[in-house]
Amino acid sequence: MLGHLRPSEPFMRTLLPWLSLAAGCAQIIVWDPHEYQDESPPRPLPSPYHVDRIVQVMQPEVDILWVVDDSASALDEQARLAEQFPDFLRTVDEVDHRIGVVTTDMEDPARQGRLVELDGRLYLDRGTDDVKAAFADLVAVGTDGSEGVRGRDATYAALVTEAQGANAGFLREASGVHVIVVSDGHDASELTPEALAEQLAGLRKDPEAVTYSAITSADAGHPEVTGLVGGLVRDVDDPDWQLDHLGLQATGLSREFFLTVLPVSGTIDVTVVEGDIHYAFADGEDWTYDPVRNSIVFQEYVPAPAAEIVLVYEPRSSEDDR
Q1: Residues with Cβ < 8 Å from 186, sequence gap 6 or more?
Q2: Strand residue runs (E) in 162-268
Q3: Residue among 183, 182, 181, 155 at smallest CA distance from 170
Q4: What DSSP string describes 21-39?
Q5: Considering just the CA atoms, what is the radius of gyration of the chain in Å?
Q6: 234: helix, coil or strand?
Q7: What is the DSSP letter of 259?
């Protein structure tokens, strides 16, 4: 008669899960302990979902160009901009910044994308005394500019044509570049939105380091640039332009976050973690997916510095592309 065999403890730990499975089905599982030398549990099956974790960071240096309408109808917008500027400065003042102003007039040779000077200086920075009053003086550009508003052309002239000319010293090599246009008229620039977007994209290697925001009407010809480059759009007729949001944008805080692989449509889940608080956001209401840029874009919300943006989605396989 055979004696009782006492299995080793590691062997039983290996065998018990398989005995449990065999008890619940007709299949008999034969397990050779000599083929399994590792006592660690088997690795779990790979998850069908992909997770991107992105930390929101500020840019250490930002150069901000305000493009201000100086046509006959723009006096009220200039006053409102000066009045609401403290909301913008509240966040921007946390980083090393330069603030310059040009007008939309491309006919006057003294303007044409040249920065408006104040006491011989081309821009405001942290060292500017009473920066709020100085900005109010800068944006009081009058209303005698050309009626053919050309904000896109003025942006190109300021950042490209005159970058090493009249505006030399404004743009720094490693800075973020953020353009904000304020205009109540339709833009009549020769440069198309697509052409300007291409020029702006060439200013920096990192596409997130450049934005183009617009406080205009929907059909002014600027929101199209924003859609291509990134930025915020505000209705010029709204009483509150939410310049605090534009300030966050100008510090390099992004509303757009890129996925590392292509997702299966409709599977993206977006969460933002700020400290111990988790915020969930709804597709179509709070954010949209841009298939061209493979990114999600928040409609209004700008995640705070050091917030973690978590994107969970099912990645597309090669079969999905067939």
Answers
A1: 149, 217, 219, 220, 221
A2: 176-182, 210-216, 233-235, 256-258
A3: 155
A4: HHHTSSPPPP--GGG----
A5: 28
A6: strand
A7: -
Residue 69 near residue 184 (C-beta atoms within 8 A): yes
Q: What distance in Å separates the CA atoms of residue 138 and residue 121, rounded to the nearest whole number? A: 11
Which amino acid is it at 188? A
Q: Token pair 């396989």 is at which residue?
A: 317
Residue 63: helix, strand or coil by DSSP? strand
Q: How would DSSP label each residue in 275-298?
A: TTEEEEE-BTTTEEEETTTTEEEE
Rounded Cα distance, 91 and 171, in Å: 20
Distances (CA, A) of 71 to 34, 44, 141: 86, 66, 9
Token match 């006492």: residue? 6
In the chain, the domains with their CATH numbers are 7-43 (no CATH), 50-56+255-321 (no CATH), 61-250 (3.40.50.410)
Alpha carbon separation from 308 to 8, 59, 270, 302 (Å, rounded): 47, 16, 11, 12
Tens place of pLDDT per residue across the chain (322 aa): 434 334 444 434 443 443 343 344 333 333 344 444 445 565 555 578 999 999 998 888 999 999 999 999 999 999 999 999 999 999 898 899 999 999 999 999 999 999 999 999 999 999 999 999 999 999 999 999 998 999 999 999 999 999 999 999 999 999 999 999 999 989 999 999 999 999 999 999 988 899 999 999 988 999 999 999 999 999 999 999 999 989 988 887 888 899 999 999 999 999 999 999 999 999 999 999 999 999 999 988 888 889 999 999 999 985 565 5
CA gap 91, 228 in Å, rounded: 25
**Do β-strands 295-298 and 256-258 pair in parallel, antiparallel, or remain unpaired?**
antiparallel
Task: Say which residue the tokens 């046509």 belong to.
Answer: 71
